[in-house]
Every structure is written in structure tokens, then in C-alpha cells.
Design brief:
The complex is a heterodimer. By secondary structure, chain A is an alpha/beta fold. Chain A is 47% helix and 13% strand. Chain A has 2 domains: 4-168 and 327-400, Periplasmic binding protein-like II (D-Maltodextrin-Binding Protein, domain 2), CATH 3.40.190.10; 170-325 and 405-449, 3-Layer(aba) Sandwich (D-Maltodextrin-Binding Protein, domain 2), CATH 3.40.190.10. Chain A contains 21 helices and 9 strands. In chain A, strands 1, 2, 3, 4, 5, 6, 7, 8 and 9 form a 9-stranded mixed sheet that branches. Chain A starts with 9 loop residues before the first helix and ends with a helix. Chain B has 14 helices and 2 strands, in the order H-H-E-E-H-H-H-H-H-H-H-H-H-H-H-H. The two termini of chain B are 43 Å apart. By secondary structure, chain B is mainly alpha-helical. Chain B has a domain at 95-256: MetI-like (MetI-like fold), CATH 1.10.3720.10. The chains are: A alpha/beta, B mainly alpha. Chain A binds chain B through residues 86, 90, 93, 97, 116, 119-120, 206, 214-217, 265-271, 275, 278-279, 282, 284, 407-408, 410-411, 414, 418, 421-422, 425, 446-447, 450, and chain B through 60-63, 144-147, 161, 163-168, 171, 251-257, 268, 271-274.
Chain lengths: 450, 307
């Protein structure tokens, strides 16, 4: 195919993509993808087959939906698998540890796997590949990636073992109708959150001011979100020591306890994001703190009773700082892969401007490319309210890692998660944090020493 | 006369039996090799390797170190592990007793003749055919304290909403409710098979002697079907002890650690924390516990036979 003869600008293609039905849009976007090449030989590894391991969710859905375009563009066949998050993480570790993983490309949850993957050097350093002009398309525009995304993707030793795929800042979904009925505005501070939650709670009517995760492990980011408002990380990033019994950590746990115990529906000790989302979507909850990627079902009339009533609030300011706890995903190449170059082409395609634009438009994630947020055509094709996009941009601007960059993150979440669940159940926040810190400190110490 | 018969019998036996030469064993042994190899590969080797790993401080991504019995000592002082044993025994006791009681009652009902009995039997065993993960997902939705159908049903009869699996106090009984719904039909089928083999003569004699329905059940039916009930108990106990999918999907061991059974704790150590050595020690202790419980049950079964 002669790329120059079919030159259609990306902007035009996105307009078509946003307006037309999928079946008509696909060929137009395909032309665009090909047009992006600018003479670069995408077919250099035609005929090869690669295996891609993805975490099940909107990001995987976005990639798999357009996979055929990649094959048409490169001649590389893709076998992809999307596995639920927890199982995907376990599968990755077991396969990497076997020395011969069955995949060439894998998505990585930075907030959980970054240090482990980096320490074990399971993924290829992308920097030499990015510097290789024969492998990197000239229009890939690496400079377009946000600083935050690149910081996440880079290991402590300077290796960049993933390309940025998605950033997930936490924010507050709020029910405008319930707020209006009480004459309330969206809170600007933690103190105002408490006041609003109290006014919105009417237990007799089954209405509650607040909901957030209470289930162990899943609840830790809620607590760390509040800790960040005290300008405190759970683990000191420089000294890698626990800061989980500091007055700020205890204040955050007490605040978490107050909101979930007094103003949240009964049973939040067992709530993960899905129970919280279900409760909020029924229209009886004032505020829900969670990741920004959960918006699409709230605006889907088939799944939600709050369509058009949802406000997207940036995390209010805490006593000392204003931060949005962020999490994210990257995509990398298995060091044991025998098809690294073909796998690299896939990673480039997956993080290209076009794929990032598609991700944003679907509301399935927040790409790490600046252009996704500035391109008017991309924004015109957005399926979610403009307020969501504003919230996303502003939350990203105040983003700060919501979980510590340590190897035993899952153990950290489990141990502190149990303490936090007990706290909602009525236990003393300080005592639970002290107990959890005592239990986890040796694990962290050993992990850092090895 | 007797001597002659013995000699004749021996001669016939020798004629019927194939000749077993000196190399008989060697000739036939190769046929057993595939089974031996497979058994060694999938049963013996994993066990030996698990025991080997339990003596190491072995965490994925870290260097392994021989620690002797330190993992076992640590387990003895691990409050979460000890708590998980309690949860496992509590869950198992309820998940054995309730389905056995309800299954036996159901078997007695379905053993009687009444219109559309076949249809009702078929409906009754339907839950048993469902996939455990699918069952768990459906029950998770039903348990939701605000939106679940269970609280809606309770509200119809004026009972206030319950927290079900969302409260540490009610989580294990709620999980047992799922087990009861799922596995009572299995017990019913086993006991129904036992009832079909019970002779009618003892009942005729008892009726002549003026025995009541309860006396006939207590002194005739129950003793006769007891071996079948014990089989059901053994099967249920093994199932309940290894229950994982339902608990993991519905609560993941929570709230907090309120429903964390040994299986859940083991999974957490092995596949979430990657503490392979420690998880191996948990496996061995759990195996010993299962063996002990099984021996107790087998003893009770044997005792029932002697009685």
C-alpha cells in the first residue's frame, strides 16, 4: 500500500471516527494509522507472530478491538489474552519466574508491579529501542508523553522498561441532585467533605453522604488519598521507611473511619469499587471517592440512575496539601522474548497518538500523551461530559503516587487493609496502624535488603 | 475321597492358570511404568518438592535460604494462620452438618410417592449443576445490603435488612448458606440411594408390633441409611475443607480476615505475597489436619459398622 496516495490527516480520521458507526469508521482510521508512518517501514517484521498479555479492562478492550489494524499495518499476527487484574498479576510473576514467559508483550500495573519487575529485570529497557530510528516511527513523538507518565515508566536505575499507557487519578464522583436539594456546593477541603457528608446523610431514607472502598487491600488507596492531603506518603520515597504511624497517617485513618462509619451505607467493610459504584449509581449516595476510569457506566442509562446528574470533583485540599492519588499502567516487552522488535512495534502502536485518542474518547482511561487533551477533534469525540475531562486534567496536574514504590506492595495493602477494615468496624485507628506497621516493617526491611 | 478331590482341584487350577516362568514379573512390569511415571510426576514429586520448599525462606524475586523448621515455628505463632484454622473448622462444621440434615430430610420427602415427584426431584438437584464461580457471583449480588434481593425479601415480611457477607459476625454463616444451597442436593441423592436399598420387611414387623412413624425412622430407617449418611459426611467434609472459589469470589477472606480460611490464607501467601516457602509449610500443616479429620471420620464409620 502506498501511504502517500492515501494521505488522510489524523484529525480528519478522528472526526470520522467520532461521528460514524464502527463499521464505517474502521477503514478510515486504518488509513490514518498507515498515513502516520511517514515512510517508516512498519512491515519489517511481517510474518512474525507475537503474544500479548493484557489486564482485563477498558485498556485491553481498546487494544483488542483494533488489533487487526496493527496486523494489517505491520503484517505481524497478534495473539492477545485479557486476564482479570489479580490473576494477571499472579500469572505474570509465575511465568517470568519460569524463565520463559509465553508472552512477548505485557501490561504492567506500575503501582503494584513496577519495583518487582524492575528489580528482576524481566522487561526490556525501551530507551535503546526508542533511540533506534530503524525501529521507531518518526511520528511516534516521544516528547508528547507527559512528564508524570514518563516518571512512572522509569525505574530508579534509569531504565525505562515500559511505555506509558494510562494514568488513573482518583477523584470524587458527586451527585449534583442530592447536593442541590441540600443547597450544598462541592467541597473544597477535607473539612467541607465531612460537613457535606453529614448533611447529605439521611439513614431513615436510605441516603448516605459518602461511599468508598472498605474491603481490605482495596481500601488502602482511600486512606493514602487522605494521607496525601497531609503531605505525607505511607513510605518515605527517599529512605524507603514506613511513615504509617505518623500523626498524619493516624489523622488520615481516623478521617477515613469517620466517613465510612458514620456517613456511608452499612456494610462498606466489604465494599470494593464495584459495590461502591453500584450504590452510587442508584442515586442515594452523595460522594464516591475512586479512580476516574469508572465514569462510563455512570453515564450509561442502562446501568445507572444518575445519568446527567454526576459531578466530577477534583480531590479537595487536605490540611497541608492538595493531591490526587494516582495509579497507572505501562506496556513492556518480556526480556525473554525472541521477537523483541515485533513486540516493540506493537508497544509503539499501542501507545501511539491514535490509540491514546481512542482510549480517551471511550472514557476507558487517561492516556499519558499531552496531545490527547489538546486536540479539539479528540475532545469533540469524547463520550463523557466535558467536566470529566477537566477533572481528569486537573487531577493529573496534582497527581502523586497513591501507593509506595516497593516490591511487597500487595503485602502492604493486605496488612494495612486489614487494619483499616477493623478501624471502620470500630477499632482504634492508631492501635491498628501500629499493629500493621509492626507486622509489615520486617517484610519491607527484608525486601529492601535483598 | 477328600484327598482325591483336593488333588483334582489343584490339577484343574494348574491347568486354568497361565504358566508363570522365571521372567514373568519382568515381562509385565513395563506395562505399569507409564502409570508409575505419571504418579511420580504429578503426585510424588510435587509432594517431595513441597516438603523441600517448606524448609526454605523462599520468596520470588529474592534469594532463597535454608531455614530448617523456622517456617513451621513461625506458623505456630502466626495469629492469622491460627485464626484461619478456627474459621476453617467453623465453616466446615456448618457446611457439613446443615447440608447433611437438610439433604436427609429432602431424601425422606422425595422417597415418598406423590404427584410430579420426578419433576420436583429434578428441580431440587439443579443448584448442584451450577459452576461454583457463577454461583458465587450471583450470591454476591443477592447479598448486597442495599440492593440485594435477600434484604428485599426480608423487608416483605417485616425483617430489617441484614449485612450478610458484609459483616464480620455474619459472613461465615452467610457463606455456609451458599454451600447449603449448592450441595444439599448431593446429600439428598446419596441418602435417596440408601433409602432405595432399605428392605420393607422390618417396617411390616414394626407396624405389627405397633411402632409409630418416628420409632420406625429412629430405630429402622436411620440405622440402615447411616452408612450412606457417613459417606455423604465424608464427601461434604472434603469439599468444605477445600472450599476456595466461593469464598474467594464473594469475600476474598474478608471483611478484614473474618472469613479467611486456611485455603484463602495459603493462596494469599503463595500467589499474592509469593512466599513460596511459608506457603509450602501451610500446605503441609493443612494436609496433616485433613488426614487427622479423615481418620476420625473413618473411625466413626467403622464404629457404625461394628455397631
Amino acid at each position: 500500500m502506498d501511504d502517500r496516495k492515501t494521505r488522510v490527516t489524523r484529525r480528519t480520521a478522528l472526526k470520522i471516527g467520532a461521528g460514524a458507526a464502527g463499521v464505517f469508521a474502521a477503514p478510515a482510521i486504518m488509513k490514518t494509522a498507515t498515513a502516520q508512518t511517514g515512510g517508516f517501514n512498519w512491515k519489517k517484521f511481517a510474518g512474525q507472530s507475537i503474544e500479548v498479555s493484557l489486564t482485563l479492562g477498558p485498556r485491553a478492550e481498546n487494544l483488542r478491538r483494533h488489533e487487526k489494524e496493527f496486523t494489517e499495518l505491520t503484517g505481524i499476527k497478534v495473539g492477545s489474552e485479557a486476564v482479570p487484574e489479580q490473576q494477571h498479576r499472579q500469572q505474570a510473576v509465575i511465568q517470568f519466574n519460569s524463565g520463559s514467559p509465553q508472552f512477548d508483550v505485557i501490561t504492567e500495573s506500575w503501582h503494584v508491579q513496577k519495583r518487582l519487575f524492575g528489580k528482576s529485570k524481566w522487561l526490556v529497557d525501551m530507551k535503546p529501542l526508542l533511540a533506534d530510528a530503524s525501529l521507531t516511527a518518526p511520528d511516534y513523538d516521544f516528547a508528547d508523553f507527559t512528564a508524570g507518565g514518563l516518571r512512572w515508566a522509569t525505574q530508579g536505575d534509569g531504565r525505562m522498561d515500559t511505555l506509558p499507557l494510562n494514568i488513573d487519578p482518583w477523584m470524587i464522583y458527586w451527585n449534583k441532585e442530592l447536593f442541590a436539594a441540600k443547597g450544598l456546593a462541592f467541597p473544597k477541603t477535607f473539612e467541607e467533605i465531612l460537613m457535606a457528608a453529614e448533611k447529605l446523610t439521611d439513614k431513615a431514607a436510605g441516603q448516605y453522604g459518602w461511599v468508598s472502598r472498605g474491603l481490605k487491600n482495596a481500601n488502602v488507596p482511600v486512606w493514602t488519598s487522605f494521607m496525601l492531603g497531609h503531605d505525607m506518603d505511607p513510605v518515605n520515597p527517599k529512605t524507603v521507611t514506613l511513615q504509617t504511624t505518623t500523626p498524619e497517617a493516624i489523622a488520615a485513618a481516623e478521617y477515613y473511619k469517620k466517613l465510612n462509619k458514620d456517613f456511608a451505607p452499612p456494610g462498606t467493610v466489604g465494599f470494593n469499587w464495584n459495590e461502591s459504584q453500584t450504590s452510587f449509581s442508584q442515586g442515594k449516595i452523595g460522594m464516591w471517592l475512586d479512580g476516574i476510569g469508572f465514569a462510563p457506566p455512570l453515564e450509561d442509562p442502562a446501568k445507572s440512575r444518575v445519568v446527567g446528574k454526576v459531578g466530577y470533583g477534583i480531590m479537595p485540599a487536605g490540611p497541608k496539601a492538595r493531591h490526587s492519588a494516582t495509579f497507572g499502567d505501562g506496556i513492556g516487552i518480556a526480556a525473554a522474548s525472541k521477537k523483541k522488535e515485533a513486540a516493540y512495534l506493537y508497544c509503539q502502536w499501542a501507545t501511539s497518538k491514535l490509540m491514546c485518542a481512542r482510549l480517551l474518547q471511550s472514557g476507558g482511561g487517561s492516556p499519558c500523551r499531552g496531545s490527547s487533551y489538546t486536540d479539539k477533534d479528540v475532545i469533540a469525540g469524547l463520550k463523557l461530559p466535558r467536566e470529566w475531562l477537566t477533572c481528569l486534567q486537573e487531577s493529573t496536574a496534582i497527581g502523586r503516587p497513591g501507593l509506595p514504590e516497593i516490591v511487597p506492595v500487595t503485602e502492604f495493602r493486605d496488612v494495612f487493609g486489614v487494619g483499616l477494615t477493623n478501624t471502620i468496624g470500630g477499632a482504634d485507628a492508631k492501635a491498628e496502624l501500629v499493629k500493621a506497621t509492626e507486622a509489615f516493617a520486617p517484610v519491607l526491611q527484608k525486601s529492601e535488603a535483598s | 475321597m477328600t484327598q482325591t478331590s483336593t488333588v483334582e482341584t489343584k490339577a484343574v487350577s494348574a491347568e486354568a492358570a497361565p504358566a508363570r516362568g522365571p521372567g514373568f514379573d519382568r515381562n509385565y512390569l513395563p506395562f505399569a511404568y507409564p502409570a508409575l511415571v505419571i504418579t511420580a510426576a504429578v503426585i510424588v514429586f510435587p509432594w517431595i518438592f513441597t516438603i523441600y520448599m517448606s524448609f526454605y525462606d523462599w520468596k520470588i524475586g529474592q534469594a532463597r535460604e535454608f531455614v530448617g523448621f523456622a517456617n513451621f515455628t513461625k506458623l505456630a505463632n502466626d495469629p492469622r494462620f491460627i485464626e484461619s484454622i478456627g474459621h476453617t473448622l467453623y465453616f466446615t462444621a456448618l457446611a457439613v452438618i446443615l447440608p447433611v440434615v437438610f439433604g436427609t430430610i429432602a431424601a425422606l420427602i422425595f422417597n415418598e410417592r406423590f404427584p410430579l415427584r420426578g419433576l420436583f426431584r429434578a428441580i431440587f438437584i439443579l443448584p448442584m449443576m451450577a459452576t461454583p464461580v457463577a454461583v458465587a457471583l450471583v450470591w454476591t449480588m443477592m447479598f448486597h445490603p442495599q440492593l440485594g434481593v435477600l434484604n428485599y425479601l426480608l423487608s416483605l415480611v417485616g425483617i430489617p435488612p441484614q449485612l450478610w457477607v458484609y459483616s464480620p459476625d455474619t459472613v461465615i454463616p452467610s457463606l455456609v448458606a451458599v454451600e447449603v444451597w449448592h450441595w444439599t442436593p448431593l446429600v439428598m441423592l446419596i441418602v435417596l440411594g440408601g433409602l432405595a436399598s432399605v428392605p420393607v420387611e422390618p417396617y411390616e414387623s414394626a407396624k405389627i408390633d405397633g411402632a409409630s412413624a418416628w420409632q420406625m425412622f429412629r430405630h429402622i430407617t436411620l440405622p440402615l441409611i447411616m452408612p450412606f449418611i457417613l459417606v455423604a459426611v465424608v464427601i461434604r467434609m472434603i469439599d468444605a475443607l477445600k472450599a476456595f472459589d466461593t469464598i474467594y469470589v464473594i469475600t476474598s477472606g474478608g471483611p478484614g480476615t473474618a472469613s479467611e480460611t486456611i485455603n484463602i490464607y495459603l493462596y494469599l501467601q503463595a500467589f499474592s505475597f509469593y512466599n513460596i516457602g511459608y506457603a509450602s509449610a501451610v500446605t503441609i500443616v493443612f494436609f496433616v489436619l485433613i488426614i487427622l479429620l479423615t481418620l476420625v471420620l473413618l473411625f466413626l464409620r467403622q464404629k457404625a459398622k461394628w455397631t
